[in-house]
Amino acid sequence: MLDCVIIGGGPAGLNAALVMGRAGRKTILFDEDKPRNRVTQESHGFITQDGVKPSEFKKRAGTDVQKYPSVSIKEERVESIEKASGVFRIQTKGGTDYMAKKVLLATGLRDVLPEIPSIKDVYGTSVFSCPFCDGWEMRDQALAVIAENERAFHMGKLLSNWSGDVIVFTNGYRMLDEEKDILARQNVTVVEEKIEGLETRGGQLTSIRLQNGQEIKREAGIVVTDLVQSAPFAEQLGCEITPNGGIKVDSFGRTTVEGVYACGDTSLSTPSQLVIAAAEGNKAAAGLIMDLVEAAFLLEA
After folding, report:
1. Is 78 exposed, middle or buried (0-12, 13-18, 19+ CB in 10 A)?
2. HEC string of the chain?
3. From the CB of residue 10, how many other CB atoms can be counted at a distance below 10 Å?
4. pTM of the predicted model, to two decimals?
5. Are 281 and 287 in contact (CB under 8 A)?
6. pLDDT in tens, 213-250
7. In whole angstroms, what is the distance from residue 137 CA to residue 41 CA?
8. Mean pLDDT lowest for which of 22-36, 135-149, 169-183?
9. Are 78 and 90 in contact (CB under 8 A)?
């Protein structure tokens, strides 16, 4: 019987595994190795790790985790999780079953890009999803915000922190006149015309082509993506989902289902940054360990 199964080998899952290992708890981390940040060249905003390649970060993290003999990492896909009599049965794609007292979901999110021709050619190289992660590298350039919903207003304001030349492209979405007036005060322009496609060169955005024939030069930018859960396990287990599609958790990663924890991007409650995901993995593992200890005392009472 395992103390815990962690599903997801991103920064949240790996940091949780590290804490589990340092508590001597028998744990398996399952990692399908399909991270959300696989298109990212560098990760930023994590002190001592600023500029690290995600693949290198993951390699270093795995080395740290594997120092602790109670934890193992398996590159295997989990197909299903069932709970019966307070115990979890985890089945992998290879047909192997594991039994665990607790399950920690660190499966993260998946970006859904707008259906704009050529956007995949520049995503992760000159067009990104997070200004806190990549704004410094784009500073003082001619920037675009591509957003097809109400988040266009917020991102237009935010990106102006890094450049005085920002244009918001809504691809047909109509912003409120009041919002456009507020953006205009800081010289942020709004273009609501439908986008025909992006002009690119070697992964670099060069211009945005509109359906009315106009072509506007841009050098880089931010695209507002839709975010969906990468795995269905939370809903299958009956965990409460928040209105924005995240998994509802408390401050220690406990979901609304006893024995199920979640951490990292899955909660959709904070900016999606490596440092935040790692910290949430640490907290969720600490909460899980505290609950295991409390359960042991209750059994002896």
Report:
1. buried
2. CEEEEEECCCHHHHHHHHHHHHCCCCEEEECCCCCHHHHCCCECCCCCCCCECHHHHHHHHHHHHCCCCCEEEECCCEEEEEEECCEEEEEECCCCEEEEEEEEECCCEEEECCCCCCHHHHECCCEECCHHHHHHHHCCCCEEEECCCCHHHHHHHHHCCCCCCEEEECCCCCCCHHHHHHHHCCCCEEECCCEEEEEEECCEEEEEEECCCCEEECCEEEECCEEEECCCHHHHHCCCECCCCCECCCCCCECCCCCEEECHHHHCCCCCCHHHHHHHHHHHHHHHHHHHHHHHHHHHC
3. 28
4. 0.89
5. no
6. 999 999 999 999 988 888 999 999 999 998 878 899 99
7. 12
8. 22-36
9. yes
